[in-house]
Design brief:
Length: 134
């Protein structure tokens, strides 16, 4: 039992900067899960992210840049499945929309880009974008 209390206390201490708004939960009751997307396609990529059944949020990512997406939750709740939706075909006259299930991992600071890392790269044919787990 003492081991469980020690582990729980360790998680609470590490979650400090990932606190939810005071009216939702205290800093001691929250943790963050995150994933980071890097763009190595040579062009701008537009995509959407959602956690579980929440609404899709749109993002634009310039080539050579990265975005970290995080989810704050109670230490007593599970993290919903993060997903990325995007048109993977680089041709403007063709739409080929895919939804990718992503993995996330615990982070103490969502601004640190320490989440599970993914890279967007063009497939060998140069027309389709692939999502690669690093």
């Amino acid at each position: 039992m003492n081991l469980l209390k020690s582990l729980l206390l360790g998680c609470v201490v590490m979650a400090g900067v990932c606190a939810m708004a005071p009216e939702t939960a205290s800093a001691a009751d929250t943790v963050c899960e995150a994933f980071t997307v890097s763009n190595e396609t040579g062009g701008t990529v537009r995509y959407e992210v959602r956690w579980g059944n929440n609404e899709w949020k749109s993002f634009t990512l310039q080539s050579g840049m990265r975005n970290t997406h995080y989810y704050r939750r109670s230490i007593f709740a599970s993290t919903p499945q993060p997903q990325v939706r995007m048109d993977v075909d680089t041709r403007s006259d063709v739409r080929d929309v895919y939804i990718f299930d992503m993995d996330s991992q615990f982070v103490s600071d969502p601004n640190s880009e320490d989440g599970r890392k993914y890279t967007l790269r063009l497939h060998s044919f140069g027309q389709k974008i692939g999502v690669y787990k690093n």
